[in-house]
Amino acid sequence: MNQKHEIFKFKSKDQLKKKIEELKLDINLSTNLESLKAPLKIRDLNISNRLCIHPMEGCDAKTNGSPSRLTKRRYQRFGLSGVGIIWYESTAITPQGRSNPNQLMLNEENKNAFQTIIHEAEKSEEELSRKNEIFKKSIKILQLNHSGRYSRPGIKFPQRMYSYEPLDNAYHQTLSDGKILSDSELEEIKSQFIETTKLAKEIGFDGVDIKICHRYLLNESLSAFTRVNSKYGGDSYTTRTKWLISIIKEIVSQFSSEKFLICSRMNIYDGIPYPYGWGVEKQISDRYPPVPNLEEPIKLIKDLHEIGMDLFNLTLGNPYFDSSISRPFDQPVQGANLPNEHPLQGVYRFINLTRKIKSSVPSEIKIIGTGYSWLREYSPHIAAYEVSQGNVDIIGYGRMAFANPEFGQQILLKNALNPNKGCITCSKCTELMRKSSVTGCVIRDSETYLPYFKGKKRENN
Questions:
Q1: Measured between alpha carbons, how far is residue 81 from residues 39, 51, 125, 400, 448 in Å?
Q2: Partner of 282 at 20 to 30 A CA spacing, among 109, 136, 164, 359?
Q3: Which of 260, 8, 249, 294 is CA-nearest to residue 142?
C-alpha cells in the first residue's frame, strides 16, 4: 500500500503505531532498550554495545586529503557518542577517484596527519570513560572508496563501468564527460585499494571498509550487465563480481587478522531498474522503484564471508539518483521531488530487506542496519526490537550523528533520545554537499554550519 509523502508529526509512540498499522507495515517497537547495550565480539575485537556511527562525509579535508580543523572537530564529537563502532567517512584511494576536492585521502605523505582523527576520537572516549565505566574505546573502521561515476577531483570526471544516461542526467553530466574504465585501469585501481589498506592498518585503524554502495565504482561493477569487451561484465554473476572479489581476496590475504577486520558497507538493493541495477528483479519493467531480488547480494555476502569478511554494513539506493531510497526524509534537497511513498515505507524497506539478508546468511556474519534516523526519538525502540529478535546485530546512525553526536550516551544512560537534539531529516546536510560546501547539521549545529549554508563562509584549512 503506497501513501503520499508526509512529514514526521508523531507526538507519541501510540500515534506512530497507528500510522504503522494504517500502512500495514511489519514494524514493531520495544519498551526495553537493553538489547542495544549488549556487547558483541567479532574475532578478537570487543564491541561494547550495538550502536554504530555510519560514515558521514564532511567534505572538509585539506586539498592534500589531510584532516582539517572541522574534520578533527567531527571525530572529537563522535568520540563522545559512546557507540561501539565509529565507521570513518569515505576516504579516497587515489586523487582521480575523489568525490570532491575536499574529500579525505590517505597516502604515504599525509599518514601522520591523517592519524590525528583517530587520536581526536580516542581523547573524547577516554574523557567519557572516566565519567562512566560502561563506555569503552570504540572499534574504528576506515571506509576506502573510488568514486567512479561520481568522481570530481576538481571538475566532474565520471569514470564508469558502463553507460547509462539516466544516471548521468541526474548528476548533470553528459555521456561525453569522463570515460568508461578499461580492464587494465581497473587492475591499477585494485593495487590502490591494497596500498591504502596497508596504510590504514599501519596508522591504527581496527579495520577497513571496502565501499560497495551508493553506486560508487565497486557497487557499479556489480550491475555491469551491459559492459562489453571485458572480463568484468555481462550477464554472469561470476564475471560481474570477479574484479571485486579479487580485490577483497588480495586484501584479506595480506592484512586480515583477528584484530584487523576487512568489512564492507554494501548496497543490497540499488533501486535502479534492470539491466542497470543490483539487487533487483532481472526483468525489463516500467515499475519504479523496481522489485528487489536479493539472490545475488546474499550469494556475494556468503562468498565474501568464505574469503574472510565477517562484518557487513547494509544500505540501499543511490542518493544522486533517488535519495529517498537511501535516506527517508521530510524535505528533499532543493529542486528534488517528493517520493511517491510515505517515509515509513522507506524505513520499512530497509528493515525488511535487512531481515531477509540476516536470515539467509551464516550466524557468524554480523550485520549493521541502516535507515533509522527518520524515526527520531522513537528509533531506539524499533532498533532494540530488531536486535532483540536477531533481525540485525548492530544499528547504525548517520544523519543523527551529525545532528546529535551524543545520541549513544542518551540511549545507553537514559534509555531515550533527546527529541530536541535529533535529526529532522530536512536534507540540508545533503544540500551543503550539493553546494560544494563543507557539510554538517545546519539545524542542530547552526553556529558552525548555518553560515556555510547561507554561503557567507568558507573553510580555511
A1: 16, 9, 8, 11, 19
A2: 359
A3: 260
Helix (H, G, I), strand (E, B) or coil at 214: coil
Instruction: Report the pLDDT value the prediction gives residue 459, as an integer from 0 to 100.
Output: 65
What's the structural domain count of the chain? Answer: 1
Burial group, residue 303, by CB count within 10 angstroms (0-12, 13-18, 19+): middle
pTM (2 d.p.)? 0.97
Residue 456 corresponds to which cell in the numbers above? 557567507
pLDDT under 70: residue ranges of the chain? 1-2, 459-461
Q: Please give the grid coordinates belonging to residue 397.
A: 546512525
Determine, yes or no, domain membership for 6: no
Range of the domain at 206: 13-453
Asked whether the CA dihedral 175, 176, 177, 180 is positive or negative, the reply is: positive
* Cα 326 to Cα 380: distance, rounded to the nearest angstrom: 19
- Contact between 360 and 298 under an 8 Å Cβ cutoff? The reply is yes
Q: Is residue 73 one of the residues assigned to a domain? A: yes
Chain-centroid distance of CA 131 in Å reads 30
Q: Is 458 part of a structural domain of the chain?
A: no
DSSP string, 132-160: -TT--PPEEEEEEE--GGG--SSS---EE
Q: What pLDDT is stored for residue 461 in this prediction?
A: 56
Sign of CA pseudo-dihedral 172, 327, 11, 420: negative
Give which of 310, 190, 202 is closest to 255, Cα–Cα: 202
Q: Torsions phi, psi of 253, nearest 5?
A: -65, -30
> Can you name the residues that pair with 395 across neighbouring β-strands?
51, 369
Asked if residue 460 is part of any domain, the answer here is: no
If one counts every other C-beta atom within 10 angstroms of the C-beta of residue 165, the result is 11
The answer to whether 48 and 84 are in contact (CB under 8 A) is yes
The beta-strand segments (E) located in 390-434 are 394-397
d(CA 298, CA 293): 10
**CATH number of the domain residue 253 falls in:** 3.20.20.70
Contact by Cβ (8 Å): 255, 262: yes
- Kind plus residue range of the DSSP H or E element containing 384: helix 379-388
